[in-house]
Amino acid sequence: MRIKKISKNELIKQVRDLGNRLNRKPKKRDNNYLYFNSRKIFGSWNNLMKSAGYKVRYYQYIRHVKLNEDFAYFLGLVITDGHIVHNKITKKYQTAIYTSYPEEKDMILELIKGLFNYKAGITPRMCGFSKKPNYEIRIASKNLTSILINDFNIPAGAKSLIVDLPKKIISSSTKIKMAFLRGVIDGDGSITSSQIKISSGSEKFLISLKELLKSLTISSGELYKRKDTKTVEFKIPVRANIEKLKEIYNINKWVYLRKKEQIGNI
Question: How confident is the model at residue 128 (pLDDT cuts 50, 70, 90)?
């Protein structure tokens, strides 16, 4: 028996009629005939859905990562200003980075696109009494969370007290170490004319970070435990390390410009 050909407009009408009967957006399994013709005429089911006026979510995949300077900078941001969700029960897998500055939000989105060819989701959230939104920039990828946890030892969930510096960064090239450090300072460094203060709830992270600084011939002060916040911190004297710091910030793309300007003005 010969199958009657169907036009694009008729296919769109039929999928809309199906949606009205179901009182929801149709799915592939609801009608094999429509699914077959969607691929034949529109190239995919999602293309048909979009043509019929439905919102479509295109799935994006991150299959592998390469440890280069860009990814090292990304790791620095994730460790200091990020959060990982890897929940097998709810099947939620997400890597998020946070910032309150629109220009930094745009830069992070561009960084993620360049690293993974991935269009990240973004949600502005109002926090406390601040009039500025805090932007949550999200990557929904199980593979990426697995790589961050297993290959770079960044814990999922509440990580501030237990995180450590990834061993792969410690054994990497000078340029990768510098890019990672720039990410850490951008995410969590407090810069004044005399010092850069870095704080963390994880003492072992700061101990490892001091060793990283030493390998880059950057001097730093002793660890100091704050009783009021129960955090640990140390300070990098700026003037003693200014040439190396300016070398680290001698970049125009993946950097928080306000931090670069603070370094440049010293």
Answer: low
Q: At what angle do helices 69-81 and 174-188 cross, to 10 degrees?
A: 30
- Same domain? For 133 and 160 the reply is yes
| Number of domains within the chain | 2
* Radius of gyration (C-alpha) of the chain in whole angstroms: 24
Quick one: tokens of 30? 């609801």
Q: What is the pLDDT of residues 87-108, one digit of tens each?
A: 999 889 999 999 999 999 999 9
Query: Which of 180, 192, 204 minimizes the C-alpha distance to 266?
Result: 192
Rounded mean pLDDT, 155-177 = 94
Q: To 10 degrees, what angle do helices 102-116 and 69-81 make?
A: 130
Domain that holds residue 251: 69-264
> Does residue 107 lie in a domain region?
yes
Higher pLDDT, 128 or 122: 122
